[in-house]
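Methods: example folding runs. The two proteins below were folded one after another, and each record is reproduced exactly as written to the output file, sequence line first and structure-token line second.
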Amino acid sequence: MKKFRAVCLAFVMMLSVAVMLCGCGDTKITDKVNFSYVDEITVVMSDESTAVLGEVDFKTVKNILQSAETGGTSGEFDGGILIETRKDGIVTHNIRVGGADKICVDKDNSTVYKISDDDYKTLEKVMDNYKL
């Protein structure tokens, strides 16, 4: 009887750990970034200067990023687009976008978000407007 109780207790503990580990990841980028708090979005250029997105592009990029969910490929990657969210001129988050299924917030490579291919193409077009 003691062995049975020990096995049951071990099973419950392992199940608890598994649920905890699965639940720790953010499922949507909005779990990490409060976009209602953001008042400015900038794109970081290759020379490390920044360009502030205009009102229409701000809304477009914000909507695209808000749709991002986990499920991409985790691990190290170089983001092709570096976006900064700001509040009162201060950077709140760095968002690296390396493709439709590779979006990281603040270099957290363990949680990688994804957007649709169409949203990624739209994001690329918006960012092309700000290249030097």
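Second run, written to the same file directly after the first:
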Amino acid sequence: MGIIVGGGLIWYAVFLATKPAPTAAQPASEAQLVREDSHRVTATSTEKAQLVEFLDFECESCRAAAPLVEELKKEYGDRITFVNRYFPLPGHRNSGTAALAVEAAAQQGKYGQMSGKMFETQPEWGEKQDSQATLFRTFAQELGLDMDKYDAAVADDKTRDRIRKDVADGTALGVTGTPTFFLNGEKLTLNSEGQFRQLLDAAVK
């Protein structure tokens, strides 16, 4: 099923103009789940599993899940590699803009700081229909980024391509909403925090 771009969602049309969604979900593979440039947000001493999250910085459910994910990173981060991938949804006016800002910050080694800032401030800018690019730029300034490099990265098609690639992979893997988690290649259906921990416990045994 292709992605339908609604009125006002110009950024999404730009993101996917050269990367149409596949007509059907393809089998998950390591190459699609985790790529060389994917953001690995934990450094394991002995990797026993990988947990991949497709996320949208304007998604309220992603924001709600973020504190738990942070707890899990502290508990399991020495054994499980946590990987974040972009999946801005077409119904969110500024999710693509936020992903661009985060990726621009990531190019200066500030992925974690900028992604955390997005979720922290989401109530201020989420659901708004006007571009929040100026606000996101102030976040970059607060993080002490080189603003010339930041502006160049935001404007660079390569930065958009980086996000398009995550969207294309997510779509191929059957991702339709956020957050979506894959544990060792298996798409999770989560009903509770306890179930999440049980799955991680089983993965690291």
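Comment on the second run: Residues 60-76 form the longest helix (17 residues).
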